[in-house]
């Protein structure tokens, strides 16, 4: 089997409402690039990466000279072809490598008639549990979906519990003043006795503020406190001053950083992202290191559609030391580009696909529909808030959004049809 072609299609997927975070917002939609790798036997492997628009499409198709004629089973050679650490100083291709690796594993599974998890050692679980992943949200274009108050947050979480069965709740913070967010987080935890909680301000807090915040929630049933501040040394200082385990998906995202954390611990739980780490296989390797040194492991979400969600499920299926529920933005999506529509939750978990390869296929009509929506709406700046056009984030941040009621985002369209 040899690769004969590679294609990329960028899509815009509408969300229930714009999601706010410490660096800005997702403006009511995700921009994702779907990658197709075609082999000489007619099979097509699927990959996915975040954002990029036309630049992502150009970057993907620019890999043709590397990939045409390559055996997709030679994934280790692929790593050095696309992500040689010296060459990558001039062109960081980690996300591109991840999308191509997904597609190559998909091709291998389809050729042999087995799911990807069988290629990766076989599954140790058939479902992967997920946290609810809650955000403060701007209202959608029709005025619905806003989450600004503790009452709105709890009401939304209760709807998700009733619909999907979540028993772990993650709140994305770093938007409003820390004291306000702490009270919202405490209200969330107190509304669901027996459930576990986790908080993530995306590194927006200074070290001392992060310590103060941690001490204000230590009595709750916390899984961990994720990226309360920025940098390994800042995380180390917070860790020395709280009983809550610390987690990260920002400052341990490669093996050199993982080695530094093993040598001088700053983080207790590593959130493995199949895109940030360059594929499923590097995440499995990292999980093995974490198993050896007794670090916790969870699966991180980077705004995926069904293709990358499938990679997260296959990863979760084969990692024995997956000790926490995974994250997923998935329930915020209004639709998906995979055949059959969105993968369903049951009891707060999603079943691991057992079909050949990744176990998902493209819905070509949906792909065309949301590619056209991208052409209509274009990209959006991840690191800007549509309600605060002159604001930009600092680390640590001190310029917080006002939690008081407002008219919401400006009239410019952020959602889509």
From TrEMBL:
<dbReference type="InterPro" id="IPR036849">
    <property type="entry name" value="Enolase-like_C_sf"/>
</dbReference>
<dbReference type="InterPro" id="IPR029017">
    <property type="entry name" value="Enolase-like_N"/>
</dbReference>
<feature type="region of interest" description="Disordered">
    <location>
        <begin position="398"/>
        <end position="417"/>
    </location>
</feature>
<protein>
    <recommendedName>
        <fullName>glucarate dehydratase</fullName>
        <ecNumber>4.2.1.40</ecNumber>
    </recommendedName>
</protein>
<dbReference type="GO" id="GO:0009063">
    <property type="term" value="P:amino acid catabolic process"/>
</dbReference>
<dbReference type="GO" id="GO:0008872">
    <property type="term" value="F:glucarate dehydratase activity"/>
</dbReference>
<dbReference type="Pfam" id="PF13378">
    <property type="entry name" value="MR_MLE_C"/>
</dbReference>
<feature type="domain" description="Mandelate racemase/muconate lactonizing enzyme C-terminal">
    <location>
        <begin position="150"/>
        <end position="245"/>
    </location>
</feature>
<dbReference type="InterPro" id="IPR029065">
    <property type="entry name" value="Enolase_C-like"/>
</dbReference>
<dbReference type="Pfam" id="PF02746">
    <property type="entry name" value="MR_MLE_N"/>
</dbReference>
<dbReference type="InterPro" id="IPR013342">
    <property type="entry name" value="Mandelate_racemase_C"/>
</dbReference>
<dbReference type="InterPro" id="IPR013341">
    <property type="entry name" value="Mandelate_racemase_N_dom"/>
</dbReference>
<dbReference type="InterPro" id="IPR018110">
    <property type="entry name" value="Mandel_Rmase/mucon_lact_enz_CS"/>
</dbReference>
<comment type="pathway">
    <text>Carbohydrate acid metabolism; D-glucarate degradation; 2,5-dioxopentanoate from D-glucarate: step 1/2.</text>
</comment>
<dbReference type="InterPro" id="IPR034593">
    <property type="entry name" value="DgoD-like"/>
</dbReference>
